[in-house]
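#struct-queue
[09:14] JT: dropping the first one here, sequence first, then the structure tokens:
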Amino acid sequence: MSGSTTLPYGSWPSPLNAADMTLATVGLHEVRSLGDRLYWLESRPSEGGRSVLMCRDREGEVHELTPAPFNVRTRVHEYGGGAYLPVADGAYFVNFADQRLYHVQDGNVQPITAEGGPRFADLVWDAARTRLLAVTEAHNAEPEPKNCLQAIDVETGRLSVLHDGHDFYASPRISPDGTRMAFVHWDHPNMPWDGCQLEVCDITGAGALAGATIVAGGADESVLQPEWVGDALIFISDRNGYWNLYRLDESGLFCVLEDGVDYGSPPWAFAMRHYAQLDDRYLIAARKGPEPQVVLVDSVAGFATPLDLGANVCGVSDLVNHAGKLCCLAHFHDELPALVSFEPATGQVARLRESGPPPVAESYVSTPEHVTFPTRDRAHAFAYVYWPSNPDVVAPADELPPLLVMTHGGPTGAAGASLNLRAQYYTSRGWAVADVNYRGSSGYGRAYRDALNGNWGILDVHDCEDLVRHLGDTGRVDAERVAIRGGSAGGYTTLAALTSTHSFRAGASHYGIGDLNALARDTHKFESRYLDGLLGSADALEARSPIHHIDRLSCPVIFFQGSEDKVVPPNQSHAMVDALRQKGIAVAYLEFAGEGHGFRMADNIVRAVESEYGFFCRVFGIHTETAPELEIDNL
């Protein structure tokens, strides 16, 4: 720090405000290519989170294809993905409000399917039969929604079942000659990252499926992103302990490149793209882990060559081949994500679309340090740690910064090194932030991911607490001023930590899980058996539910909840808040009307960011002039 003003940690004036970092940021996702046009979705907080289908033509002009109020988003599995498909005469898409399929061409939007039908995701065009294929989810079935693969007649909207009998389906992919289809399926209690199967079927002259063959996968093998490369089938499997690339062709099935890192991530959403086909032999893939790379992979000879997309690129996603170039979303240490193109032959990188201008100057950005720390059971875990960074201020020499521990969702999600504006909001104000990749996180191989099975609410909590101990023992943070926050499954880890340890002095739960019994009873189909593996026994539903251990909770907590959350219904937060009020512990509760599992409306996001920070500062006695008015009971 080189500033001339001395102020206590946490009270530093920062140019990064919640409104700028929210309103200036447009979410970019689901990149697709067709001919000389490039497509993607933009999620706009300024429009209530509306997701808009965008297109860049051959001249570089950008067009908005779906007019308001259409919102391109599917609710299959609640997390969606694969919500649109470009075709020669426009695009097909799923509209969030009614979950119907629509066709758009030149601004004219027409419905394809009837009202009250199933939900659609992972759309694929069957050119040989002029029809759409999709994963569907019907919510008029009992005792739970029914998932299957269906074909959709785009002229009449008529649906016909291609394959059913399994609890879940994903990734229908048709061979280039139109004679075969590959797809993934799995059954309760597995999640797709636990185990699933990759099946290949012949497509008959009548368009039905026949001659099924299971080519990979099983109860303990996860398969991702099957893609046809000529007559060969490429996919990602973790059969060797890591999500590596495999190839199935006339010579048999073999691993393209044995590598001790992951090339995939948990498929919480449909149609995730971890690699792109350049031609019948070469792929460009995203190598995950603490030191991510983009690599050119020879799928026949089995070697990889690193590619340079820029020094500050710390990961890529949504990879597609667009006219012989790689187009993808690039993630940076110090900038917001951008849609970029990369020319493999020349190494030239071009920015095509940005999430928004940098909401803060680079001099205020804290670059994360990847930390490996020891755990109490003589293993190790990982975190990205951000240190206070503000060129205008220095802290008193005898003071250590307060620490915010962040727990990601999933719990199979992962913290990364890309620009995290919430972390920067804190570090530019004088906090240290630790984004923990506790055991169970992805990106470190299957064994690390599976370590949480049977231990959720135990190992993840221990790892967070052990990181606090590690940073405190090394004299880098004030161990008496540590807060913890998380959303969804990360909210559960946060609440579990607050009811089972004394390392944290305050917490923030964003749509977090307080009652595991209620979660098992009320949550949606996709996750309805997730707890079987995470907890290991029915007894743990009550034993590890934070709501049953309020007597152990002795520090303030703030809760954020969406009124329309179907994954973690509001009643869970209500129960925790009521219990804290009755016990006399400081508690605040903010519920946002119309929001689901995760907040999309700009005003709500801004209020959540500011309220969380203001709550922690109130609890720790840190003076800040930017905190909003906040009603806190028992404080």
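[09:21] JT: and here's the second one, same format:
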Amino acid sequence: MADGLSLDRRHFLVAGAATVGVVACGPAEEAASPPPQQQPERVAEQPKPAQQGGVLRVGTPGTPSGLDPAIMNNGEAYILNMNTHDNLVYLNPRLEYEPQLAESWSSNDDLTVWTFKLRQGVKFHHGKDFNADDVVFTFKRLLDPETKSAIRSVVDPIQDVTAVDSHTVRFTLKGPHATFPALMAPRQAAIVASDRTPEQLKSEPSGTGPFKMQEFKPDERTIIVRNPDYWQADRPRVDEVHFLVMKEQGAQAAALIGGSIHMMFTVSMDVVPQLQSNSNTSVEVKESGAFTDLVTNTQLAPFQDNRVRTAFKLIADREALRQAVFSGFGSLGNDDPIAPIVPEHNDALAPREQDVAQAKQLLTEAGFDFSQEIVLHNNAKRPDHQALALAYQEQAKQAGINLKIERHEDNVYWSNVWLKVPFCIVNWQWRPNIDELCSIMLHSEAKWNESFHKNAEVDELIAKGRAERDPTQRKAIYGRIQEIVSNEYGLIVPFHWPNINALHKSVQGHVIHPVTWLDLRGVSVE
């Protein structure tokens, strides 16, 4: 096999992430970026805490939306899945892709065939031995339109997947793909057992991960327990994890300070000062490419007209919105999902600034009815949604727009509101692999193309970008995508926010992840 890019390597680096700040947790540090042909060092193993066992309690604002990895669609489901399932490839906190259920991978010369050697001696929670059939089953499900997986467009480059032997899998692609192993890491690509029925996957999840599902009570709690047969002998380090639904941030903060919970998933800036100043708690902040966007549906009135979409973008005072929602943390956005932290970010694209007069002119030219009420839908359990909605509502008044805020409960928002209304707010976890990010939300056929804008040039550029080995050429390709998306799509991206974790002082071994994940396999509690 040819040694192109990361070929026949046990793991590879796709991007560096800088820590913007660690509050009450020591100095910031930079992630090393080794030369492309040099194998990066593994993440240093955390010193094994003396304390083992016990219960780790995590406060969450909502409940997991779906237990089947292929079709789950919210942050709570992702963190549950991360701790109960494994992928072929794992994205570590230094943004290196390293082996998980795959031990190694290699490619042919033209990057159209990739072969993965699988880990042996691994069992699913229900007792089945892990083998190549499970990998084939998992990816054929993802590719099947009937599954309705959100990442079908991400794995679409796969022409076929076959078992070479019990622990070797071969992926044949439709065309060359320079970073294909990275497509094994999305949470929806977690490996599931080939002997499970669709109903079992939805109601009785069984992965190979460090924890096993024990109890699932929507809008109340989810309990996972130690997997005694986990293939990493020193993991996990607690006996149980309880994800407790606590809808109010103030209640979560009080519980964290008092020690009745140990971690918070999704931290509002409203409670950060309180947690920073308390001796029992600490707050960690790490730069990320995550973002919260205001989405206009280009197929629904009044947003079919690009002049209206552009006007709504020009209304936004991005710095004011960033201050209102994240107290100035993070970086400003430019109405596309590719953040400044990403190497392929288009630095030459002029940042869009607020221009209320131009917004009014465009709306008038488009025949916009200023007397109509525009509803901005948002999730009542997401603190960033609330702050962004209120701040943008005030800015919209300057342009004469009557904006009404409508709040929805978390358990109905992702199924009955998002992708169904003209104007709403969405928060996105960062996907460092740029092909995954573009394929999952910008491609014409993407299930999560939330503004419903179709552009044939973008589709062609996505295919071209995944085949390109040269970093300079890749940057140019994705730079053009950003230009089109910023100017045509129905996305208003005012800022990219950092990952913020809040911990009780009793928590040890936690490593903050740039991708807003909570990987709890190495965490212990005093």
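[09:30] RK: nice, looked through the second one.
[09:31] RK: The chain is about 25% helix and 25% strand.
[09:31] JT: good to know. The chain has a mean pLDDT of 90.
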